[in-house]
Design brief:
mainly alpha, single chain
């Protein structure tokens, strides 16, 4: 069946059985893990619900978590289908949708868990909460942009840094028409925007430290901004290494994992400014 689709005929024709098994087991393992996650949510949810061990306010929230997981499975198949006919790879739009929704589901699970954990009673300035929200959404956008880079294999070229294609602002960023489409379909432009947005996120994390340390928020909230900035700097360094090495599998996975860790801590910080569930 794989030999009948364009990816095999145009890219991988003549591949060995072991080469096919390598990509097959990645795909199969990913799908199987997704189904296991669904069971790990559904079975305890039903058990604790039926036995009366769930507080009323948690029931709709946990049900929403389960529904989002089901939606994610549908979007995953919608993404895969885009690479079975005509294209030799999946649509970068659908890949970005799939990854971004996965991260939002993860963030929602973190939000629920963080709300149930102990919180400090230290004061929280409104600036701290506002910045935590802005940082969260900035990281989500950056993850979406990273998915576009992955979907277009945009990291496989222009692997110099800090310049790009030998320049601070490279040529041919807006050669496609209409101009806006370059931000989604021109690999050079997509990578450039992902780089620039990474710098913007780092500046935002620095600004958050400055603002929160100058606010009336307690020490715990201030300390979290330092941790976030540290995680952001580490993630940026991993991104540069991944780019310069032309995205080897290991470093690509580390870079993606680093983004999830950064997102998770951003959620924990935001939720920490809201206090525990009543």
């Amino acid at each position: 069946k794989y030999r009948q689709i364009p990816e095999y005929q145009q890219i991988n024709k003549g591949m060995s059985m072991s080469d096919f098994q390598f990509i097959y087991w990645w795909e199969w393992g990913h799908r199987f893990l997704g189904r296991l996650i669904g069971l790990f949510v559904a079975i305890p949810l039903v058990f604790f619900w039926v036995t009366g061990r769930l507080e009323a306010f948690l029931k709709p929230r946990l049900l929403l978590l389960f529904v989002l997981g089901g939606l994610q499975g549908f979007i995953g198949w919608w993404m895969v289908k885009s690479g079975l006919v005509q294209r030799v790879d999946v649509s970068q739009y659908r890949l970005a949708t799939h990854l971004t929704l996965a991260c939002l589901i993860f963030a929602y699970a973190m939000w629920l868990a963080r709300g149930l954990s102990p919180h400090s009673n230290e004061p929280v300035d409104q600036k701290t909460t506002s910045f935590s929200i802005i940082v969260f959404f900035a990281i989500v956008i950056q993850i979406f942009l990273g998915a576009l880079v992955a979907g277009l294999d945009a990291g496989m070229s222009f692997n110099d840094w800090p310049t790009m294609d030998g320049k601070v602002i490279p040529d041919d960023l807006w050669i496609q028409s209409p101009a806006w489409i370059n931000a989604f379909e021109n690999p050079k432009t997509v990578q450039f925007i992902h780089r620039m947005s990474a710098y913007a996120v780092l500046l935002l994390l620095i600004a958050q430290v400055v603002v929160v340390y100058g606010s009336q928020s307690g020490a715990t909230h201030k300390r979290r901004t330092i941790i976030l900035l540290t995680l952001g700097l580490v993630q940026a360094m991993i991104g540069v290494i991944t780019l310069v090495l032309q995205v080897p599998l290991f470093w690509g996975l580390v870079h993606q994992a680093g983004a999830v860790v950064l997102l998770g801590f951003a959620v924990a910080h935001w939720r920490g400014t809201k206090g525990a569930y009543a």
